[in-house]
Fold this sequence. Notes:
This protein has no helices and 10 strands. The chain is mostly beta strands. The protein has a single domain (about 5-119), classed as 3-layer Sandwich (Rieske Iron-sulfur Protein). FE2/S2 (inorganic) cluster binds near residues 53, 54, 73 and 74. Pfam families: Rieske.
Amino acid sequence: MHEKKYKWYKIADALRELQFGENNILQIEVGGKKICVVKTLNGIAACAAKCPHAGGNMSEGFLDKNGNIVCPVHRYAFNFNNGRDVTGEGYYLKIYPVEIKEAGIFLGIEEGGLFSWLK
Ligand code: FES
């Protein structure tokens, strides 16, 4: 398997700049994609803002006690490690890597060029 290539976008200079909602979720737009940045039990994570089940807005969801993000519409919960729904229904929420560095907070989006799947 080939390593994924990411394009990294700076989303803030520092954590305090990220204005999380009461649900610890902040929706932003990066590289033309709507993304939720989430303050989890283990730090900062990011996922697609659109639920893979029926398009619910994950930014209006919440975190369960295990740190999974729960969609507000039908309450499917997704794990930040692999994006799978925790009840095993086979839904997959896109997860984006986040890196906190001295220079700021960066979010990675896979480079999906025309030839990326040929390599
Ligand atoms: S739309 Fe998200 S669980 Fe159904």
